[in-house]
Design brief:
The protein is α/β, with parallel strands linked by helices. The chain is built from 15 helices and 15 strands. Strand 11 and strand 12 form a beta hairpin. About 2% of the residues have low confidence. Bound molecules: pyridoxal-5'-phosphate. Pfam families: Aminotran_3.
């Protein structure tokens, strides 16, 4: 059957689409994408779209990369599946773990694979509670997250979402979660407040939150080094260094959620490297395989891992895992991604294209709807408001943003560019392979949409 014709006669709500209005799907056929090449995707009518957010911040090496396809096919032919567990695994999984541990800015390095970013963060929580029990501190369960953050869609990770809209509708228990402000410098600063004073205020809020909860009950602080989906506010000066110093004082672990920032988005392999963060554990997914196959991982420090090892030895077994964690085909693709980063000097390309990207976004500021632009690495945000509607609002991720940003998203589709609407802004994170000419075309389409 012709791939274009597939699904043509099904009602839109045949498949329940996440983050969609399910009622609208009754009448409305969803956009159907059938092909991709480089930074472009093509819908069933042959229209092309620049994937300015790499779909879900994940197809970092662009679409239809032959080397990645070949890596998958080769592994499919050799051994399409073998689960990792019960003292068995496959060489590509072992090799990938070794490469990740070697590259991650975590002291030591032990890796556990899963399939999605949510699952990686979820197992990080589960492992933390396990480790703290082994350490004789079972009461250390609380996890601090930042408002406006997103760490996944499982029950435990939804409990960390800094957006009540994600929790309340499902009645998600959030008893073990603590929330602090997400930095939104300079929008969130008080009048006349310096950047340093703003940082200190956030760190003081964190200290008070820990003290109020009882420091002996707090296990970890989880944060993205820089969060695209929270409106792309680079952390203010000294933020992570001061946060880390405070956490160390209380014996609270720092987890870097690098599901989006991992694998080049910020100009280095890890956002933690770019921002000088030394986390105890890192979670990653998406860019790890350039999203060609589902795979995620947590990279844990020697210290953290030692408790898991000790607990498992006492119990005779570590009771956690899943069928697809570290799928061999996904691992083979991820290994190829790491090869490509080195051979094609992807980080060198990102660093050289970053100033062009920054300039292109800044050039939109002369548009009457654009109130500000923000940039970090190869990502950015365009803050929008109608003239006379007042200044920018502090961004918080809203999955149903409505208003002007939703309108800009729709106009973007019409102009052939896919952006991600949030409250008061749209965010961008194009494939890392984007060229100068393609950045020009992306900003031209964005201007048409505006
Ligand atoms: N963490 C962050 C920062 C994310 O942006 C996401 C998804 O967008 C996740 C975790 C969850 O990843 P996944 O959708 O693969 O479960």
């Amino acid at each position: 059957m012709n791939v274009q014709a597939r699904g043509a006669n099904h009602p839109g709500n045949m498949v329940m689409l996440p983050f969609s209005n399910l009622r609208r799907l009754r009448e409305e056929r969803p956009l159907m994408f059938v092909k991709g090449k480089g930074i472009y995707t093509f819908d069933e009518h042959g229209r092309d779209y620049i994937e300015a957010v790499s779909t879900f911040y994940c197809v970092n090496l662009g679409f239809s990369d032959e080397e990645l396809i070949e890596a998958a096919v080769e592994q499919l032919r050799a051994l399409p599946m073998y689960p990792s567990g019960i003292h068995r695994t496959v060489p590509v999984v072992m090799e990938l773990a070794e490469r990740l541990a070697e590259k991650a800015p975590v002291r030591g390095g032990h890796v556990m694979f899963a399939t999605t970013g949510s699952e990686a963060n979820d197992q990080l929580l589960k492992f933390t509670w396990y480790a703290n029990r082994v350490a004789g501190e079972p009461q250390r369960r609380k996890i601090i997250s930042r408002r406006a953050s997103y760490h996944g869609g499982t029950i435990a990770t939804t409990a960390l979402a800094g957006s009540p809209a994600l929790q309340e509708a499902f009645g998600i228990p959030t008893g073990d979660s603590l929330f602090v402000s997400h930095p939104t410098w300079p929008i969130g600063a008080d009048p006349g407040e310096t950047e340093e004073a703003y940082t200190d205020r956030l760190v003081e809020e964190l200290r008070q939150t820990i003290e109020a909860a009882g420091p002996e009950t707090v296990a970890a602080f989880i944060a993205e080094p820089v969060s695209v989906s929270s409106g792309m506010f680079p952390p203010p000066v000294g933020y992570f260094q001061k946060v880390k110093a405070l956490l160390d004082r209380y014996g609270i672990r720092l987890f870097a959620d690098e599901v989006v920032t991992g694998f080049g988005r910020t100009g280095r392999l890890w956002g933690s490297e770019t921002l000088g963060i030394e986390p105890d554990c890192i979670s990653c997914a998406k860019g790890l395989s350039s999203a060609y196959q589902p795979i995620s991982a947590v990279v844990m420090s020697d210290d953290f891992y030692s408790y898991l090892e000790e607990g498992s030895n006492s119990a005779g077994i570590f009771n956690h895992g899943g069928t697809y964690g570290g799928h061999p085909v996904s691992a083979a693709v991820a290994l190829k991604v790491l090869d490509i980063f080195e051979r094609r000097n992807i980080l060198g390309h990102v660093q050289s294209i970053m100033p062009i990207w920054q300039k292109a976004l800044a050039s939109l500021e002369d548009h009457p709807l654009v109130t500000a632009t923000r940039c970090f690495g190869l990502a950015g945000a365009v803050q929008i408001a109608r003239p006379g509607e007042g200044g920018p609002v502090a961004a918080s991720p809203s999955l149903a943003p409505g208003g002007l940003s939703e309108q800009l998203y729709q106009e973007g589709l019409a102009a052939g560019v896919v952006v991600r609407p949030l409250q008061g802004c749209v965010v961008l994170a194009p494939p890392l392979i984007i060229t100068e000419a393609e950045i020009g075309e992306l900003s031209r389409r964005l201007r048409v949409a505006l």
